[in-house]
């Protein structure tokens, strides 16, 4: 789900539509599942194409399902008007909230609206890239009939042309090796995101997301912490959704800054789940935090200028995030 003020690349939109068309005609899966509620939180993001792709797969699988899209106070009237078409799709609902409740609250709201035993949460900027996507989750549901387990499918970043100057695309592609199930399983609760995961409804309602996380960033990290404390395991599998749409550099930097402010706000509870906070702690233990903050502060404007330009540096991005966080804490 995009944060306020984000924009979309027309090139990436075309890419997503091509992927959706590629998987339009899919084969039927044999599924032993009572029913699936697919829950899509959105904010200023057109997701009718996504809903149709997911709906096609569920129908081909001949399984009970519903898709509920929760609009968290979108301000883009054109997007809202397009998304109203979701109500015309079979077994689909588009629920509009006039007030922005926040990233955690909208997911909790959708969980309460769902009617089936299994919930599949998918972010609205994801794209179906595998014709077996629903079938893989259905197989996992059968495996965990009686066990309280979250199943996280991850996400992938398909290679695209024409995005070499896009910071978000460069960043996501640079760390794509970390998105495999094997790699994520090394840190199962830290390397978890709410963009594509399945959970039993009773477990989700008993352990909802922390609604204090209203702004962008780290609500999924906090939820990993919640699951760990509740003794609910996370099974990491390779069943990714595609991340194919990327905001421009200025909006991504602003989103990153918002996420760092969230991290600073909840630093005490997230200290064991954030590598960046661990770096800050290391500097503090070496009595170098103040020095690092003073040295990096004059560079911040230059770094930000690079990141919002046409040739952003990933090294500059790492240094800028550390510098920004040091000024906050």
Please summarize what this structure is.
With 329 residues, the chain is of the alpha/beta class. 45% of the residues lie in helices and 14% in strands.
Task: Give a structural overview.
With 329 residues, the chain is of the alpha/beta class. Helices cover 45% and strands 14% of the residues. The chain has 15 helices and ten strands. It has a seven-stranded mixed beta sheet, with helices on both faces. Helix 3 links the parallel strand 2 and strand 3. Helix 10 runs parallel beside helix 15, helix 13 crosses helix 15 and helix 14 packs across helix 15. The chain is globular and about 60 Å long. 41% of the residues are buried. The N terminus is likely disordered.
Count every beta strand, where a strand is a DSSP E run of 2 or more residues: 10
The whole-angstrom Rg is: 20 Å
Instruction: Please tell me the overall pLDDT.
Output: 89
Question: What series of H and E elements makes up the topology?
Answer: HEHEHEHEEHEEHHEHHEEHHHHHH
- Beta-strand percent range: 5-15%
Q: Main beta sheet, described? A: 7 strands, mixed
Oligomer: single chain
Helix count equals: 15
Structural class: alpha/beta
Spatial strand order of the main sheet: 3-2-1-4-8-6-9
Shape: globular
Portion of residues in helices?
40-55%
Distance between the amino and carboxyl termini: 27 Å
pLDDT < 50 runs, ≥5 residues: 1-9, 23-32
